[in-house]
Design a protein that fits this description.
There is one protein chain. The protein is α+β, with helices and mostly antiparallel strands. It has a single domain, classed as Ribosomal Protein S5, domain 2 (2-Layer Sandwich), CATH 3.30.230.70. Helix content is about 30%, strand content about 30%. The protein contains 4 helices and 9 strands, in the order ββββαβαββαββα. The strands form 2 sheets. Strands 1-2-3-5-4 form a 5-stranded mixed sheet. Strands 7-6-8-9 form a 4-stranded antiparallel sheet, with helices on both faces. The chain is globular, with a radius of gyration of 17 Å. It binds cytidine-5'-diphosphate. The site of cytidine-5'-diphosphate has 12 residues, from α2. Cytidine-5'-diphosphate binds next to α2.
Amino acid sequence: MEAETGIIENANGSARFKIGKTEAIAAVYGPSEVKPKHLEKVDRGIILCKYDMMPFSVPDRAKPGIDRRDMEIGEVITNALNRAVLLEEMPRSMIAVNVYVSQADAGTRCASLTAASMACADAGLPMRDLVASVAGGKIGDSICLDLTKEEEDFHEAAATDVPMGFLPSKNEIVLLQLDGKVTREDLRKIIEIGKMGAARIYELEKKALKRRFLNESKT
Ligand code: CDP
């Protein structure tokens, strides 16, 4: 895994997160005036997140533009960030989050959410916690963490994919989806292994942010 922040000069906050062969880059703009105006909330800020895969991120060339899958992923990332960012502290404002997947090998929504949360922190937004996100699952009888595309598509063993996002210091789950079938007991095990993975990601995120702010204070 690799994590770094402050990678985009022209954004208020930015980050890159790589896990295996999946890599996401996030840029955060704001808080700024809400556009379009009708989305404005008098008592809190709003987050608008766009997720996109770069054409060269997958072997088949991803079609440029936002499709239904991209919209859904943008929504789940927004929902998770809504729990992490203290939006009540920035009424009538908007935070734009743009996430791009530069390399995809499954788990892109999780890598994107992790990158987006680091970018929010890099932008100096008030937050309850960082989000650490990873997918878990089951391949045959094995409970696994961070499945690859090949593992996800392993139909013979009916693989199950469970993207998860955590606020580690609050012990809260902010993203939980399920693709496939799973028993209650196995889901519990997948969440446990997800929490363990998220704890490692969390440490990396904090290290990346500290590195950036220590360097900045030296200059
Ligand atoms: O990426 P994530 O697992 O969050 O979402 P998914 O919809 O389950 O996609 C799984 C994987 O399918 C992606 O990570 C890509 O590796 C691949 N994919 C692709 O090759 N072409 C697309 N247009 C969309 C996804």
